[in-house]
Write a structure and sequence with these properties.
single chain, alpha/beta, Aspartate Aminotransferase, domain 2, Aspartate Aminotransferase, domain 1, six-stranded mixed beta sheet, 10 helices, 10 strands, elongated
Length: about 270
């Protein structure tokens, strides 16, 4: 879970507003959650500055939040102490803490923790529960862990143009993902494919892993003159163009044979230069 710099902005609600508090209250078993099995790196000290009341007064909007992304922005996953400290700072400044959970399932699968521990127990007020990047055609759910925010949120949703006329088509996807913890199975598979990809390219000449993958993203350094030809063959995003750092993503439908085919391309465009 990587945190962006604290800022206030209007809360634009995605396609579906749903109270999934039951997912936090009842998804975990009666047994205490096991400690995460991966090493979690602490972000830089200046990753989130100290929040002030002035932050909450910035701009003309009346819904003030601090926005965090659980694993995407800084290439690492952060749990427990850091979000809790950020929540304390946000609440002291009269703000709410929003967790952008586009890949929340990948973060949970990577750490072995549960939704309550990662989200509710750290003081998060609003969670965007991601479905689009985990198997749905489209749709996210906004989980309000502070029910008193719900009355205003439903109006913001409509004002922002995020009220679908056929919400049942979004809800059907949510139900399918939640059934039997399919959403976590998808994430576990995506994470496993990222590890497979990292293992297969680590010895390719010209490829240097920036770090071991923690979720479903693989960050590698490539020779500058190899990036454009490889991307023309199979598209991916630059992460730091100056450093030749790029990001490769796996997902719920990535197959081992897809990984092997991509590795063959990397070997052709990078390893045989």
């Amino acid at each position: 879970m990587a945190c962006t710099r604290g800022r206030s902005r209007r809360l634009v609600l995605p396609l579906l507003l749903a109270l999934l508090l039951a997912a936090c209250d009842g998804a975990s078993s009666d047994e205490p959650a096991e400690e995460p099995t991966v090493v979690i790196e602490t972000p830089p000290d200046d990753a989130c500055r100290v929040l002030t009341p002035q932050d909450a007064q910035a701009g003309s909007n009346d819904t003030e939040i601090v926005d965090c992304d659980e694993e995407h922005t800084a290439r690492t996953i952060v749990v427990d102490e850091f979000p809790a400290a950020l929540a304390d700072a946000a609440h002291a400044a009269g703000m709410h803490l929003h967790l952008d959970g586009a890949r929340i399932a990948n973060a949970l699968a990577a750490t072995g923790t549960d939704l309550r521990t990662m989200v509710a127990d750290t003081g998060v007020d609003v969670l965007t529960w991601g479905a689009t990047k985990n198997g749905a055609m489209y749709g996210e759910a906004v989980v309000l862990l502070r029910p008193e925010l719900a009355p205003h949120a439903r109006f913001v949703r409509k004002q922002a143009g995020q009220l679908p006329s056929k919400a049942r088509f979004v809800a059907a996807q949510m139900l399918a993902l939640l059934d039997g913890d399919r959403w976590l199975e998808h994430a576990e598979h995506a994470n496993a494919m990222a590890h497979l990809l990292a293992d297969r390219v680590r010895d390719v000449q010209g490829v240097r892993l920036a770090r071991e993958p923690e979720a479903n993203a693989v960050f590698v350094h490539l020779p500058h003159d190899a990036i454009a030809p490889l991307r023309e063959w199979s598209f991916f995003w630059d992460w730091d163009e100056a450093e030749g750092l790029v990001r490769w993503m796996t997902h719920f439908a990535t197959r081992p044979e897809d990984v092997e085919r991509f590795v063959a391309g990397v070997e052709a465009f990078v390893g045989q230069r």
